[in-house]
Design goal:
about 180 residues, 2 domains, four-stranded antiparallel beta sheet, 4 strands, elongated
């Protein structure tokens, strides 16, 4: 059931398949009752899409947090980034200030998210691995490469109803 709340594609694909079968039945039999069934199936697909849009699952909330963090990095807005970080993650908070002092980010994107949620911890945690891709200018001029493509692993904690960054590593190692 959760797969239908994570993405609109399963709902759309099932709906298209159902409508195709019902359309074939309508054309073969010529019976108007299939038209009513097509209308009902279309209505169910619409309701499913509305539910998918408005229901925020943990996976969606985690993805939203990471998207907000990437947008803050791209905007070079450390304060917006820190809104995505747990107040108890002092190392990340101080490291973010250091990174933003040194680099001016031009682009920051994340993709290929793999989310594992552990509801047995207190508070619940999630481990997410993804690819971070973008470009930045080194204000110190020490890095000749403007682009980056890194494998990132982050740990998030559910705190006060939100998923917040608690720890991270880049290419398997901790950074400032």
């Amino acid at each position: 059931m959760m797969i239908f709340l994570e993405s609109p594609w399963p709902i759309l694909l099932v709906g298209i398949a159902a409508e195709a079968v019902l359309a074939i039945l309508l054309l073969r039999t010529g019976q108007g009752r299939w038209l009513g069934a097509m209308l009902a199936a279309g209505l169910l697909v619409l309701l499913g899409l509305l539910a998918e849009h408005f229901v925020v699952t943990d996976r969606k909330a985690i993805s939203n947090t990471l998207d907000a963090a990437a947008a803050a990095v791209e905007a070079n807005d450390v304060n917006r980034l820190l809104e995505c970080v747990s107040p108890s993650a002092g190392e990340i908070r101080s490291g973010a200030h250091q990174v933003f002092e040194r680099f001016e980010f031009r682009k920051a994107r994340i993709h290929s998210l793999e989310i594992t949620i552990n509801r047995l911890t207190s508070p619940p945690t999630a481990t997410v691995t993804f690819q971070a891709v973008g470009s930045a200018r080194d204000r110190l001029g020490q890095s000749p490469y403007p682009g980056f493509a890194e494998s990132v692993s982050v740990t998030l904690r559910r705190e006060q109803g939100r998923w917040l960054l608690a720890d991270y590593s880049v290419n398997g190692r901790k950074l400032p």
